[in-house]
Design brief:
Blueprint (H helix, E strand, L loop, with lengths): L12 E3 L4 H6 L12 H10 L43 E4 L9 H9 L4 E7 L5 E3 L4 H6 L2 E6 L1 H15 L2 E7 L16 E2 L25 H16 L5 E4 L10 E2 L10 H16 L4 E6 H4 L18 E5 L8 E4 L2 E4 L5 H17 L6 E2 L2 E3 L5 H15 L5 E4 L8
């Protein structure tokens, strides 16, 4: 049995004597087809509003980033939802939006296995928008892809998924992790320290370096809030945000003058979370965070534990493969976590539970679980550990980057 590997003296699970008491207490492939298949194609062609393509100029134009203050709550915020969705019943899986048209069999199998929600990236990790947003900043940013589905087509997709398979479509939006929008949103991007106007990359562009939106900049925050409010107003009762963070590598990154960047980073991101709460309702969205950061470890890109930012629901990234050769939390270690899903999940979720119990107002949890490279038994081991540690029925998101599952 897998569980038998989880022993204090085993070679899989090791405990460091120092800090043991503390450990107990503190715890998106293919270019989108011009048509989105069958029914979606008809809807898209009938209603497409001419979303413009992303333009790739020969280079980035240097601009001056005007000093801004931390954005306040949006003008005319939406009222909090009176009938917010109850996430406790959700069993979700991830699917690349660009492949949705060909996934009828996936939806059928998922529904038959009891899955009732699907998460798709409508603003991906590159910052590309796959629906034709009508928001002003999306138009300025030129991030709407040429083949993007219209809002009417997107709503029709949502309704068909719900009516045909009982599956709720949850859009995911990447926030400040965005390589596309900083090209044109002049007052929203991170710039190069000392230049005052040159766009910054987190690495050499020839080595895959990416641009970033500036979490301190009001225009960057407003861009994400506009998208969230637009989707929420079109009937998407539950959204997910990812990339609410600072870059990992920040050499020569410039976020603004001292007045602009006076607030600590954790407070800046927490303030943005409160703006999201005001925009779509506190129970109208969830926040993806690092699993390690959620237990108080490796919080650098957040400036603090993101579980404390005020999101009603957090979705910790809990894939064993993401932890490398060993997972160490709170003085305890699981060696080769990818080979031992039950033990890795047991350690992480046990520590997460203990951490949340120390919080006065703890968020609900809907973690991401690994499917890539795993058998059905491996997935079942992850789910079992989640429910053993955090309670039967805790919702989760099953993740395979290509959307290939054995439910």
């Amino acid at each position: 049995m897998r569980r038998n590997r989880f022993r204090r003296r085993s070679r899989v699970f090791r405990r460091r004597r120092s800090g043991a008491v503390l450990g107990k207490v503190l715890l998106w492939l293919l270019v989108v087809p011009v048509a989105i298949g069958g029914y979606f194609l008809a809807q898209h062609l009938a209603t497409r509003n001419g979303g413009q393509p992303t333009v790739a100029p020969s280079g980035d134009t240097a601009v001056t980033t005007a000093p801004t203050t931390v954005a306040t709550a949006p003008d005319s915020p939406a009222s909090p939802q009176e009938n917010a969705p109850n996430i406790a019943h959700l069993r979700a899986f991830y699917l690349p939006f660009t492949t949705a048209a060909s996934r009828t069999s996936t939806f059928e199998a998922a529904a038959a296995a009891g899955y009732n929600a699907v998460i798709m990236d409508l603003k991906d990790a590159d910052g590309r928008l796959w629906y034709a947003s009508a928001t002003p900043l999306a138009q300025t940013a030129r991030t709407v892809q040429q083949q993007a589905i219209s809002m009417e087509g997107l709503v029709a997709m949502r309704e068909e998924l719900q009516n045909k398979w009982g599956i709720t479509l949850i859009p995911r939006l990447y926030a400040f992790r965005d390589h596309a929008a900083p090209r044109y949103l002049e007052n929203a991007r991170v710039t190069v320290q000392g230049s005052g106007d040159s766009v910054w990359y987190d690495n050499d562009p020839s080595a895959g370096g990416r641009r970033w939106l500036n979490p301190y900049a009001e225009e960057a925050r407003g861009y994400i809030l506009e998208l969230a409010k637009e989707l929420h107003g079109s009937g998407f009762a539950l959204l997910m945000l990812d990339g609410v963070q600072f870059p990992e590598q920040e050499a020569q990154a410039y976020y603004g003058d001292a007045e602009q960047t006076a607030l600590p980073r954790g407070e800046v991101l927490a303030s943005f979370v409160q703006e999201m709460n005001a925009a779509v309702g506190k129970d109208g969205w969830m926040l993806t965070v690092s699993g390690m950061a959620a237990v108080g470890e490796k919080t650098g890109v957040y400036g603090a534990n993101p579980a404390t930012f005020g999101a009603a629901v957090i979705a910790p990234w809990a894939l064993p493969a993401s932890f490398g050769g060993r997972l160490t939390v709170g003085g305890e270690t699981v060696v080769s976590p990818n080979a031992h899903p039950h033990e890795a999940a047991t350690l992480l979720f046990g520590q997460l539970k203990a951490r949340l119990q120390l919080m006065e107002s703890a968020p609900s949890v809907m973690p991401w679980l690994q499917a890539q490279g795993y058998t059905a038994e491996d997935v079942a081991a992850e789910v079992a550990a989640l429910h053993e540690q955090m309670g039967a029925g805790v919702p989760y998101v099953l993740y395979h980057p290509d959307g290939n599952y054995t439910f």
